Amino acid sequence: MLELAILGLLQESPMHGYELRKELAAKLGAIRAAISYGSLYPTLRRLQAAGWITEAAGTPATAEEVPALTSRRGRVVYKITAEGKERFAQLIAQAGPETYDDTGFGVHFAFFARTDQATRLRILEGRRRTIEERREGLRDVLGRAAERLDAYTLELQRHGLDACEREVRWLEELIANERSGRAPTAPRPGVADGPRDNNSPPPPGESRKERP
């Protein structure tokens, strides 16, 4: 998933490691993009060895941009190659179990604008099945063991069930839009949460905010 995200971002513009990490956080949300330099740079080296990205001389990074012990890396700009664009096209077209879990779905969803409609639909339907199974598991726990759970554990299980039910409704709306050829409704300018109501889940990778 990190490979897919890096190649997707480098198609937009060349970046150095610090910029990539910032863009990953902006694109995927802080939770899913909690990527350390210890995982980012080995992945960049592997992509470079495969010929999917290459280095270009970059402008000197500021002290704020360069973490400790990474001064050289902060000055290396990475750009995608023609082979890297082909690799990205292969990865973005995949739809399987790894694209239905939380991280896989979040990364693929972030690049849905560059994914064909049939693949988007397969991923959305697979994600819905995954969340429905998770929902039924939570219902089973609450039905069989609720009386044995303490109040806080019970509340946590109910919270998880509520989140699953909201996401299933959200996915069903997205699937209906895909089948009818409609894109999701864009947020209104100046309205951070757009037209979603209080029962709608946040986009993948974002935390749910309290709404009035």
TrEMBL record:
InterPro entries assigned: Metal_resp_DNA-bind_regulator (IPR052509), Tscrpt_reg_PadR_N (IPR005149), WH-like_DNA-bd_sf (IPR036388), WH_DNA-bd_sf (IPR036390)
Region entry Disordered, spans: 176-212
Protein name, UniProt field: PadR family transcriptional regulator
Transcription regulator PadR N-terminal domain mapped to chain residues: 6-89
Cross-referenced Pfam families: PadR (PF03551)
